Amino acid sequence: MECEYCGKKEAYGFTCHYCGKRFCSEHKIPEMHDCPYVSLVSKPVNPRKRIKKSPIERVDDAIFWMDKDTRVKKY
């Protein structure tokens, strides 16, 4: 299999889900081979969107901000 981006020959190639071309392990990600179709399907990221945390992460954050005397010891 020959990479369509760099011409490198490998035993196993990767097919891009967007453009359908075959690439080596170095260029298998659409951003690495300048895939023309990736910008059409990717959604813009909203920087103001709040990242949701799991309940365990919220408890860990609360424990971190407590006073040293009121913290629960983790075993």
Automatic annotation (TrEMBL):
GO molecular function, one term: zinc ion binding
Alphabetized UniProt keyword annotations: Metal-binding, Zinc, Zinc-finger
Annotated Pfam families: zf-AN1
Residue span(s) of domain AN1-type: 3-40
Keyword Metal-binding carried by entry: yes
Top-level taxon in the UniProt lineage: Archaea
Listed name of the protein: AN1-type domain-containing protein
